[in-house]
Amino acid sequence: MTATAAKTDVLVSPEWVEDRLEQFQSDDPDLRIVEIESPEPPDNDFPSKYDEGHIPGAIGLNWAEDLSDETQRDILKKGDFEALVGGLGISPDSTVVFYGNGHIPNWFAVFAYWEFTYYGHEDVRVLDGGKDYWVENDYPLTTDEPGYPSQEYDAGGPFEGIRAYKDDVDTARNSGIPMVDVRSPAEFSGEILAPEGLDETAQRGGHIPGASNVPVADNLRDDGRFRPREELEARYAKEGIDGDSAVVTYCRVGERSAIAWFVLHELLEYDDVTNYDGSWTEWGNIVRAPIELGHGD
Q1: Catalytic amino acids?
Q2: Residue 88 is assigned to a structural domain of this protein
Q3: CA 164 → CA 171, 173, 245, 274, 290, distances in Å?
Q4: CA torsion 275→278→282→283, rounded to 10°?
Q5: Does residue 279 form part of some domain?
Q6: Which among 33, 42, 53, 116 is least surrounded, fewest beta carbons within 10 Å?
């Protein structure tokens, strides 16, 4: 489970984005910004948060509709990824900034970051604090939807070093490799199967034996921005994670756990961190897969 090298300057501030709004709105593909919609499709009662207002120049994508495979529970196939990204006006050389609009700041934006990294996009970044922080601090919004010229896009990879599968989790469990479950304590203990309002996607509750529970909120400040490096290092060190060994992150599907992967691999620059895409939705449905209940304390 060898990971790619960590990047620098992956977390950008609202001020950084605001200073470049004219460039983000240009047909030149050098800079692109993308708002990632939560997976619940909009309807007449709950309009798209992107349509209600977004950062000027931002492209709108829905995690479930645009970044997932249509025929199976998986991310986009490489060819579909290339067609999507090139059609949005993003080139392989574009700097792409993601931000999210879900109830957990950047929940799905960081998953998009992970998927772009999986397919070898060199310069991807995340807007610290996501949309909520942008709105609450009175940065500009628009309802104008951009349309950029299509670009030729040839993806790299896939780079499997940042992705874990069921066999990798078996290896981690049998070898004592740390696993981080970022779900809520109630999900981790088996009290509930999914967050309120989301469909239950597993037959059983609980967690993978040996996993530690570091809920998503532990990575974020109250305003949705990521905690300082020293706080993040200390929080994971409490679970015995200091960058000296491989780490597997997981959640219900694989999107929330992308936040822990981002913190460990990109912000703390720990070398060997993989995200279990499939997570409890897969593990909790596997016949005879071992589980643990409770909080383990």
Answers
A1: 251
A2: yes
A3: 10, 12, 15, 5, 18
A4: 10
A5: yes
A6: 42
